[in-house]
Amino acid sequence: MVDVSSDQRSEQFAERLLAAFNDSAMMLLISVGHRTELFDVMSTMDGAGSQDIAERAGLTERYVREWLGGMVVSGVVEYDPGDETYRLPADHAAWLTRAAAPSNMAVMASYLPVLAAIEDELVDAFRRGGGVPYSSYPRFQEVMAEDSGAVVDASLVGKTLPLVSGLVERLEQGIEVADIGCGSGHAVTTMARAFPNSTFIGYDISEEGVARGREEAAAGGVSNAGFEVRDIASLGEVGRFGLITAFDVIHDQAKPDRVLESVAKALAPCGVFLMVDFAASSRLEENIDHALGPALYMFSVMHCMTVSLAQGGAGLGTVWGEQTALQMLREAGFADVSIERIEDDPFNNYYVATL
């Protein structure tokens, strides 16, 4: 076993911090490239100068040139100094363009400036308690809708719903379905379009999200989907729904226990609750080697936990973990709970719960 001195460990840690700082800078520039559609534009050009790229994107050349410099030194974009042209390799574009969804990592980069913008309020919450409210995140729902929308399009109907035995057949025949914490409602309209004999309702506390859901349904001519502003901790429904879905929403609720109890009451006999949430442990020591460990705790501190605490809530956080999730589902009245997985989605647990 190699003995590493304290000085060597210190140097290695400093090197790691420097690399992380540079990678963070790269991700911020990637977010800009995503929002300005520079990656999408460059993916259609086989090497071009900064002026041509700027004109194609409808942007100012000076900004584009400096951004390109950052992308070159980050190893994202290739540069030919002979003719001063820039090229986005196809194997990089596969992870950075809208056409690559849901593999577009540039969307993930867009979370960083949104979350960093609330740092002052967050530091104050560290000192005084409480939390940062949803209203302090003006672009969060926009970014979340783009991120989750790509996943919905790629897998909801073809992979997620078939995890529940017999569910697709029931949806084809016709049942009532509710999506709680529906956000902008894309999952609701997607399911409603795929299963016209069933009826769908999306509930969310956000008036903005509900409005977007109604707009999408109307624009797509989807008549079997509706949306309602409602506190999902008190749905007030009894034995109504054959399916209730919750996509990455339970852990940031102010009263997650009451939400789960409301869901249990709202399910019809033989109804199913399908809850999708991050795959992680409730035990810190089991998350040390998690591929998204730092990101999950960052999301928790800077959004999921704090928005719950801002409402005087439980503050479960993003990393509430499957042990806590299973316990809370059982305490809410679900007698049978299984955790399913999708092969090409290593980061989420798919909880199938029945009464």
List keywords for this structure.
355 residues, alpha/beta, 7-stranded mixed beta sheet, two-stranded antiparallel sheet, 15 helices, 9 strands, globular
Condensed summary:
The protein is an alpha/beta fold and 355 residues long. The protein has helices spanning 6-35, 38-42, 50-57, 61-73, 90-93, 105-109, 111-116, 119-128, 140-160, 167-173, 186-194, 207-219, 256-266, 293-310, 321-331, and strands at residues 78-80, 85-87, 176-180, 199-204, 225-229, 241-247, 267-278, 336-342, 345-354.
Describe the structure.
With 355 residues, the chain is of the alpha/beta class. Helix content is 48%, strand content 16%. The strands form two sheets. Strands 5-4-3-6-7-9-8 form a seven-stranded mixed sheet, sandwiched between helices. A two-stranded antiparallel ribbon has the order 1-2. Helix 9 (140-160) packs parallel to helix 11.
